Structures are given as structure tokens and as C-alpha cells.
From TrEMBL:
The keyword Transmembrane does not apply. Residues 25-192 form the Helicase ATP-binding domain. InterPro entries: DEAD/DEAH_box_helicase_dom, DNA_helicase_ATP-dep_RecQ, Helicase_ATP-bd, Helicase_C-like, P-loop_NTPase. GO terms for molecular function: 3'-5' DNA helicase activity; ATP binding; four-way junction helicase activity; hydrolase activity; nucleic acid binding. It holds the Pfam family Helicase_C. Residues 216-369 form the Helicase C-terminal domain. This is ATP-dependent DNA helicase RecQ. Keywords: ATP-binding, Helicase, Hydrolase, Nucleotide-binding. GO terms for cellular component: bacterial nucleoid; cytoplasm; replisome.
Length: 471
């Protein structure tokens, strides 16, 4: 397809396709449903952007995060595409009204699963000729849909409402079970599946057992102040993101913190500062990272046992996008398994919550927002007993996922080999720097800190505006 290469070079500035890109794009142009599983940094955005220029109609991209949408919109604008918009809560009422009235003017429309339930927006979408629908970060359907964001599951009904349209599902990680969830929810018909090896040879894995939280803090301070970043420190606690950042800032590190309870404008500011190199380190919950375009991340540090191997692979996969050596380090104590399960279950509906939801109207009771949202969805579809059994199964699976991770880091088997095995893939060749189970010396990977880095000064309001609203 000469036309493909012409567009690739002229519009996107690339001389050749990466592995799998051309095959996937050809299937999209042939109007086939497609599931593409490629590691972070393999050019997933090109897969939905390029075919749009060879097909009539609008492309609707369903994305999980506001910051990710905004970043993708900006990336397209940098490439010279003006017919792009994100329909989300960033827009004021008046901006949203105008955007919906002018929806036919856009080639790329980014939105969220929740926004797809907006009646006015839906009516406008039905009047369009839709080339195809993209589910970006499609693993969120399975990871979040059943017990956190039920509007991901409602995508199935939405697809039926807009008529026959092909779907492209993109993600960096997915087990066979997750792929099945994606196929069912997105109403896919015999999709073409492209699954790239999830191995990232440039990322070495380091697992370190410590005795307590104080040792974790001491280790993190020692590592960050003595070695070069950029890097991300992942923790489960919003408070800890701020505690780590404050301690590192006192040591002269340019660092910021990031979590879901921050103002959206502050989160965007921190994300942009990190991407532009104004911050060397970010201390964050798992709310940070999706869609980050930063090629030179050298370190990922976890101070806890993640809730799943899939989630861990998503987070460490943000390192080494430039192909140069990086290291993913994980600190844990024997009690971290229980702590991770406790954190995971905080907003999880218990049997009593479910019974109350079925016996009362929501105006009569007080429940966590997440609990109310998810039980409203299942109450419309299952009876009380079925819902109780569903959440027992989900709870058991979450516990098993955490236990699988703990088993992986405690045994003597190569970490890289076990990570790939979880996704039914085989390790073909071990890199020179593999993992701490393979006698790897982290000191041989890390670059010593060569200069004193001053802590990031507080930005005044003019500087903040310049970053948020570039001219």
C-alpha cells in the first residue's frame, strides 16, 4: 500500500512502520474489528490516527482519563490536525453545547465512557458517519468496568444504538480473560488480533524485601539522591505521595506529587512539568502515567505490592521508551499483601451494602460514591443473590491476583519469565541485565548523580498560566 507509506512520511514524519503497525492499519481500512496488544512506546496512537486519512467519516476515541484525552488532542494538533476535540468535563456548559452543535466538523472526537451516556451527545453522534470506534487502554473495560466504572460495560449498549460500526481495541497488556471481556463488551465480530511480545528487554527488574516502612523511606531517599532519573515512585497512599515528595525536595530533588484528589489543573501542570523535564521525579498513585509521552524515564520504584501483575506491567512499562537501559525496583514487607488487599477493598461493596441497595432507595441511604455507582448498574441487571455472588467472585479474584504477585517475587524463578508467563508468553532470550533473581547488580545499571539538582521553585500564577494555557 504505497498510499500508507506516503501518509506515514508526509503527515507523521516516519520513514517506516514499526512491527505490526502496517498489518493492523490494513485490517482497519478493510473495516475489520481489531484487537491490538502492544507494549508502551510501540506507537499505538498511529494505529487509529493514520487510517482516518484513508477513510470517510469521523473517528470516535473512547479514552479513560481526561489528562490522556487532552494529551492526545495536543499531539494531533502538533501534527497539524485542527479537526480534533475532546468532549468531557473540561468544557464549560457553553463550550460543550457549541461543540456538540458543531460535531460534524471534527475528524477525531475523544470522549469518556461516561460521556457516551449523555443523551444530547448521543443524538449528535448518531447523525454522523462514523468510520470506526477506538477503545483506547481497552484493558480498563475488564479492570474497571465490573467494580469501579460501570459505564465501561455500558459501551456495549451504546455500540448497538449507533448501528453497525467497526471497533479498534488498543492496550499494552491483556490476558486471555481480559481479551474475552473486551470482545464481549465491544460487540466484536471475529476480530483480527495482533499480540506483540510484552517483554521489554531494556527494563531490568529488582525486588527488595525490607522490614518496615521506615526502611522503605530510607532506601528511596538513598536511591533517588544518589542516582540519576527521571523516575516515578508509585505508592498506594495519597498522603505518601506528598510525604515522599516533601522529603526528597528537602534533599534538593526536583520532584512533584500526583494523585486523584488534586485539582485537575494542578495534575495537568505536574504532568507537563515532568514531560518537559522541569521535574525529575514524580511521587504518585496509580492515577499517574497513562498517556505520558516521556521517552527517557530511567527508574520506576514501587513501595508496595501492586494489585495485579497486569497493573504492574502497565506502570513499569512507562520506562525505557527510548530503548535505553532502565530499572524497575519494588520494595515490600511481608505484611504488604494484607495492606494491598485492604486498600483495594476500601470502596468495594460488601454483602451488607448490596442488601441495603436492593431493599432501599438510594435517597434513603448513605454509601460511597463508587459503591452507589456500581450497584446502580448491577441492580438493573441481576437480582440480589446474583449480585452478592458476583462480588464474592470478584473479591476472591482480587485476592488471588495479589497472592500471585507475592508468590512471583518470593520464589527463585526469573521475574521476567514469570511476567511473560502470566500473559501466556514465553521468554525467548534473557537480556544481560534481567532481574534480581538472575544475579543482576543494580549498581551496574544506575548512573551516579553527577550534579546537585535544585528543588523546583513554586511557580507564580503567571508561570502556571503559561504552562496551562500556552500561546
Amino acid at each position: 500500500m504505497d498510499k500508507l507509506n506516503e501518509i506515514l512520511q508526509k503527515r507523521f514524519g516516519h520513514a517506516t512502520f514499526r512491527a505490526g503497525q502496517q498489518e493492523i492499519i490494513e485490517q482497519i481500512i478493510e473495516k475489520k474489528d481489531v484487537i491490538a496488544i502492544l507494549p508502551t512506546g510501540m506507537g499505538k496512537s498511529l494505529l487509529y490516527q493514520l487510517p482516518a486519512y484513508l477513510m470517510e467519516g469521523t473517528v470516535v476515541i473512547v479514552s479513560p482519563l481526561l489528562s490522556l484525552m487532552q494529551d492526545q488532542v495536543e499531539q494531533l494538533k502538533i501534527l497539524g490536525e485542527k479537526r480534533v476535540i475532546a468532549i468531557n468535563s473540561f468544557l464549560s456548559f457553553q463550550e460543550k453545547e457549541m461543540a456538540i452543535r458543531r460535531l460534524a466538523d471534527y475528524k477525531f472526537i475523544f470522549t469518556s465512557p461516561e460521556m457516551l451516556q449523555n443523551e444530547q451527545f448521543n443524538l449528535a453522534l448518531r447523525k454522523l458517519s462514523i468510520a470506526y470506534v477506538v477503545a483506547d487502554e481497552a484493558h480498563c473495560i475488564s479492570q474497571w468496568g465490573f467494580d469501579f466504572r460501570p459505564d465501561y460495560l455500558r459501551i456495549s449498549t451504546w455500540l448497538q444504538s449507533i448501528g453497525s460500526v467497526n471497533v479498534l481495541a488498543l492496550t499494552a497488556t491483556a490476558t486471555a480473560e481480559v481479551v474475552d471481556d473486551i470482545k464481549k463488551t465491544l460487540q466484536m465480530n471475529a476480530p483480527f488480533e495482533y499480540i506483540h511480545s510484552l517483554d521489554r528487554p531494556a527494563i531490568a527488574y529488582e525486588m527488595i524485601e525490607v522490614d518496615n516502612q521506615q526502611q522503605k523511606m530510607k532506601w528511596i531517599l538513598g536511591r533517588v539522591t544518589s542516582t540519576e532519573g527521571p523516575g516515578i515512585i508509585y505508592t498506594q497512599s495519597r498522603k505518601k505521595t506528598e510525604t515522599y515528595a516533601a522529603a526528597l525536595r528537602e534533599q534538593g530533588i526536583s520532584v512533584g506529587f500526583y494523585h486523584a484528589k488534586m485539582e485537575q489543573s494542578d495534575r495537568i501542570l505536574i504532568q507537563q512539568q515532568f514531560q518537559q523535564g522541569q521535574l525529575e521525579w514524580i511521587c504518585a498513585t496509580n492515577a499517574f502515567g497513562m498517556g505520558i509521552h516521556k521517552d527517557n524515564i530511567r527508574q520506576i520504584i514501587h513501595d508496595h505490592i501492586p494489585t495485579s501483575i497486569a497493573g504492574y506491567m502497565q506502570e513499569v512499562g512507562r520506562a525505557a521508551r527510548d530503548g535505553k537501559q532502565a530499572i524497575a525496583s519494588l520494595l515490600y514487607t511481608p505484611t504488604d499483601v494484607e495492606q494491598t488487599f485492604y486498600v483495594t477493598m476500601q470502596d468495594f461493596p460488601e454483602e451488607q451494602d448490596i442488601q441495603i441497595a436492593y431493599q432501599s432507595s438510594y435517597s434513603d441511604i448513605e454509601q460511597a460514591e463508587t459503591t452507589t455507582r456500581i450497584l446502580t448498574y448491577w441492580k438493573e441487571r441481576l437480582n440480589e443473590h446474583e449480585t452478592i455472588e458476583l462480588f464474592k467472585d470478584i473479591k476472591q479474584k482480587k485476592w488471588q491476583d495479589i497472592q500471585k504477585f507475592y508468590t512471583m517475587i518470593r520464589n527463585d524463578i526469573c521475574i521476567r519469565q514469570q511476567l511473560l508467563h502470566y500473559f501466556d508468553q514465553r521468554l525467548i532470550e534473557k537480556p544481560y541485565y534481567c532481574c534480581s533473581k538472575c544475579k543482576m547488580e543494580a549498581a551496574n545499571i544506575l548512573q551516579k548523580r553527577t550534579e546537585e539538582k535544585n528543588s523546583q521553585e513554586e511557580l507564580n500564577w503567571k508561570k502556571r498560566l503559561n504552562i496551562l494555557l500556552p500561546t
